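Follow-up to my post from last week.
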Amino acid sequence: MFFARILTLILTVSVFQTAFSENAKAQTASAPMTMPELLAATKPTDWRAIDPDHTLYMELSTGRVVIELSPLFAPRHVANIEKLVRAHWYDGLAVTRVQDNFVAQWGDPLNSHPEVGEKRLPAEFSRPAANSSFVRLKDVDTYASEVGFVNGLPAARNSSDGEEWLIHCYAMVGVGRDTDPSTAIGTELYTVIGHAPRQLDRNIAVVGRVIAGIELLSALPRGTGESGFYEQPEQRMPIQSVRLASELPASERVPLEVLRTDTPVFQKLIELRRNRRDTWYKKPAGHIDVCSVPLPVRERPDHKR
Amino acid sequence: MFFARILTLILTVSVFQTAFSENAKAQTASAPMTMPELLAATKPTDWRAIDPDHTLYMELSTGRVVIELSPLFAPRHVANIEKLVRAHWYDGLAVTRVQDNFVAQWGDPLNSHPEVGEKRLPAEFSRPAANSSFVRLKDVDTYASEVGFVNGLPAARNSSDGEEWLIHCYAMVGVGRDTDPSTAIGTELYTVIGHAPRQLDRNIAVVGRVIAGIELLSALPRGTGESGFYEQPEQRMPIQSVRLASELPASERVPLEVLRTDTPVFQKLIELRRNRRDTWYKKPAGHIDVCSVPLPVRERPDHKR
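User reply:
Got it. Predicted complex:
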């Protein structure tokens, strides 16, 4: 069941660029014209393995959601989330909120406070841009003077203040908080399930990305309470467990890889998507939004099931 | 059931701007600080009634999806869709495709051709910008030299070629087609359920917007076939009927209004959302993406149920 879902995700990623109608077929040509052709031509070194010490498996009755945590931007928040995971604190909690075109959020419906970990944390909404391996996207952006990618995640920076931050694109994961930023310790997490809510950027700690199983969250019924909270406890989707991949025996892990964003092949991918040349498209856009750049995920090709 | 859903939608719109955490409360001040405060202070003339001759009610077993058609940009496509509706051609068809972070699409799974209406239609992907009532958004856009709103819908134009077109924001409705643009006659329709797929702009006829019940489409299970098509017929969500609002007796209609986009109050709304001043936000964005500007919908206030 789970493997089927992972495969589905990977398939979805790989066909995402196929023509909008099922009847349209890509042109055949020597140079890659489509994302699957380009990905098929990648080298093993174009991909980066996901670190099992920073990978969460959130088990729902419907399957597994895989989240890659990135300690680069919010290291203390990520460390505390991993501490809560190791203590099995999330087990038995639930998805409590699904607001259409916004977020799915999970945590403790009773708002209890964990015995382990931090009680408060300083805000980690951005970091100094200096010396980061920021790969810039040439396209202009509404919100920031520069957008691009840092180690596989969408990021932005402002030349004026030297700040750099992760962007709330679809499937990005952040740390819910109350009005006081220090209340964000990881007891409430959310992922984006709609148009990128960029107004949240630099207002919240962004800690990673859902790299498999996002549809297990994005297709949940929307909550009918304020801000999409479920009004009845039985409407919530229970969380069976959350584990670090490294906590599980190898046989229960799926070795996922993400396409590296600091490579020539990633630049080719961006250009393929900026100007779609498959026959369905009559007017290539000529531009691409940072949140429309695909971040491909695959199972390691030599993995035996 | 249906009225409850409509109310839910309106409630969702009105609370959309509330702080991200349920614990945060908006400040009280004399000038409106939040969208609900602003909307509460509107005059009746700030709203525009939806034309029942251009409003579709798509009935699913889970409720009603309401679509406002706009003949401004794709008049022949809209006219043909309305012809198909009057012939009850959509009754008994189904939602055939739901692709995560992209579109939900409906039509005839058997790909039959209607007896009524057009067999082919010329492309209506854009129109000349001259003399339109385009209300410009001052923020820069990745894809177009100008973005803004035309009669309540997000639109873009390029100063270089004088073209104007509707934007694929969340909940916008377009006409599916094969590689040949003339195959788009309205037998396949879709709505956006993810981050705005702007690469579709100017490649397809955009005909309107889902103004109520989008969650009945966006929360459907994702299809596991290529491009999100359902692999098994029983996975499809059947369409019970599609009617023009004007075909129904008044008692079965819901008189919806949309906030006009050519008014000072709409400009105030944009500014409220560009720089959020409720206490939850620590760093107002200072900018807003055209697809992040809310397009509020309400039931006519004097409507008796």
